[in-house]
Amino acid sequence: MTNLGPKVAVIYSMKQKFWSFAFLSLAVATSGCSNGFKAVLGSAQNASSTQSVGATGPAGGSGSTTTGVGLSAKYPGDVGIQYDPSVINYTNFENGYNGWTNYDPGTIGRYINIVDNPAMANGGSHYLQTTVTMSQLNSNLGPYISAYVQYQLPTPVPVLYERMYVQIVGNTLHPHHWIRVTAGNPTYNSDGLADTVPGGNNGFWYNFDLTSNNTFFYYVYWYLMRSGRCNNGTAVPGCAGDQGVTYYYGNGFNPANQTPMPRNKWFCLELETKVNDVGQSNGLLKYWVNNQLVGDFEQGTPLGTWLRDQFFTFGQYDTNPQPFSGFNFRSASDVLIKRVLLGSYYQANDAYMANASQDQTILYDDVVLATQRIGCKD
Hints:
Layout: E1 6-8, E2 28-30, E3 87-91, E4 101-102, E5 112-116, E6 126-133, H1 134-137, E7 144-157, E8 159-168, E9 179-184, E10 203-210, E11 216-221, E12 251-253, E13 267-274, E14 284-289, E15 292-297, E16 303-307, E17 310-312, E18 322-323, E19 336-347, E20 359-370
Parallel strand pairs: 12-17
Antiparallel strand pairs: 1-2, 3-20, 4-7, 5-6, 6-20, 7-19, 8-13, 8-20, 9-10, 9-19, 10-11, 11-12, 13-14, 14-15, 16-17, 16-18
């Protein structure tokens, strides 16, 4: 674990999952993270969770799943879906990990296990359980634990859909980082590096993360990412709002009009990642919850305001809404989506972990990776 150096308290904390910027303050805080820095969050308490549900639909809730979307229309209940030519991997954990492997040595069997419990499984009798305990975090295993399994795509792709069923158990707190999707050229595997701008001919990655309000946001690293030093996203000393320190932590994209996801209940989550054509900004990130589109960041949508390293789509800092320009993720055609991580990353020294319950448990079931829209199985 390396000290990533000071981070100013314009510090938006995606750790506390509120939005607050002390733009005129030069107060400094220090934090570090070997698997990607999770910003600190301040006050506006993720205003999206308090707004009414709009056209994009809710981030969870019962009765919102619609059948007949994407591959689910061809394979009701996922029966036979693994044989579709667009499917890269189908894992319902009934017969083991099916290609999902350790991210860090010892992860499987320590923090991650397949559980046989028909009463709890989303389908069949087995599911994947990730549990990180406070005892582990405060032992010689901590204070940083990556409870991930990973799947390396046999052939990297320009478009990836990842559908899964997820259940957040009890009082489990939001992880420091959650699900990750990574892209790179054939030799680049350095995703997860904090305070780092990857080369456009090397790769990009993002974490799909949870807020303290049970909503979602993207935390994205790519070669044209913005710095948090200046109001305009640059790192030029003397700029407007200069924080005096240059840093490049993941740029934040938090959709407006989210409804908190349910706890202690399975919900269907699907992510879409698309790389850009070289020289264009037509890359995109989208996600659905229970088949309802919640987040859509692509050329022309949504409306929002860039400020430092955040694209605000609501709240007091969304002062000049303009169409999102889209993602120029890569500058070389051999940068393709190549790996996904499923699980969680926790840090014992996150302030909000002080009163955490013993077990931080998240369940996964019925995971599909494909090159076209999948949809929920039920």
